[in-house]
Amino acid sequence: MSQLPQGAVTCEALELSASAPPRKVSRALAEEVPVALSYNGSTQAVMMASPSDLTDFAYGFSLTEGIITHPDQITDLSIETHDAGTELRMWLAEDQARALTTRRRAMAGPVGCGLCGIDSLSEATRALPHITADPRLPLASVLTATQTLRAAQTLHDATRSVHAAGFLTRDGLLLAREDVGRHNALDKVIGALTRQGISPATGAFVLTSRVSIELVQKCALAGSGMLIAVSAPTTRAIATADAAGVTLVALSRAASVLAFTHTSRLTGNTP
Where is the active site (predicted)? Predict the structure, then answer.
């Protein structure tokens, strides 16, 4: 077997078939490890994630969870590996540290899901910025966006069990990240863009998953005006995208897509 990508390991299994005797086989599988995100010495959330591109994950999570608004507000970051998992230790600038302390006083405790570290229904439907960014992407690029992303999924090729997110511009797919969690994959892309000084307003996020409300929230908080996904959205995701000014494109296939919100960005966007 060729060298495996980061985040994949080889495991042994017994293959059973109705037409052949049992045999031992080796299979590449995706790693899933607990990743704790801590700020100024206190853990904010523990996510099950793929152990790759964790610096991108730290920055993306911090931005989309409202802990920081600019990468410079993380003054120090270290990645510590323990027997039980991995810890992303971050230290915040004074104002952000104070704001997070205030937020923690109102929290019942962090949870390992897409809506992290919240305990009120109002936080689950938090106010979002209204996006006015107008990414001018050729319709041909939009139609083939998920296929383009699929070609960049090296971890999925090895394991068949991870999600991917990417960032599409007029020049093509700029970057992609993979993870066992669809929210984590998007956070990694947002973190990578932030660290490289690339504005999410200049393109669209592309996802291999269905679209739920928290993915739209992350897109809006990052400042992108378009989200393209291979699967269907939920009704709450559509309502959230509509209110936030995000063009939501889903059920993406090579021949057609369904545009649910702010469709004017897609009518007349040819070069």
Answer: 113
DSSP code per residue over 182-248: HHHHHHHHHHHHHHHT--GGGSEEEESS-B-HHHHHHHHHHT-SEEEESSPBPHHHHHHHHHHT-EE
Cα gap 71→42, rounded to integer Å: 19
Q: Which of 193, 82, 72, 204 is nearest to 146 (CA)?
A: 204
Q: pLDDT digit string (tens) for 207-233?
A: 999 999 999 999 999 999 999 999 999
Residue positions annotated with a catalytic role: 113
Q: Using CA atoms of 61, 66, 72, 75 in order, give the dihedral in degrees to the nearest 10.
A: -70
pLDDT band at 254; cut points 50, 70, 90: confident
pLDDT at residue 269, as a whole number: 53
Burial readout 145-163 (b: 16 or more C-beta within 10 A, e: otherwise): bbeebbebbbbbebbeebb
Tokens of residue 5, six digits: 């990508």
Phi, psi of 259 (to 5 degrees): -100, 120
Go through the domains of the chain in sequence order and give each one's CATH number: 33-124 (3.10.20.10), 139-266 (3.40.140.10)
Q: What is the pLDDT of residue 108?
A: 44
Beta-carbon contacts of residue 147 (< 8 Å; ≥ 6 apart): 254
φ and ψ of 71, to 5 deg? -60, -25
Read off the tokens for 103.
């937020």
Nearest-angstrom CA–CA distance, 87 and 37: 6
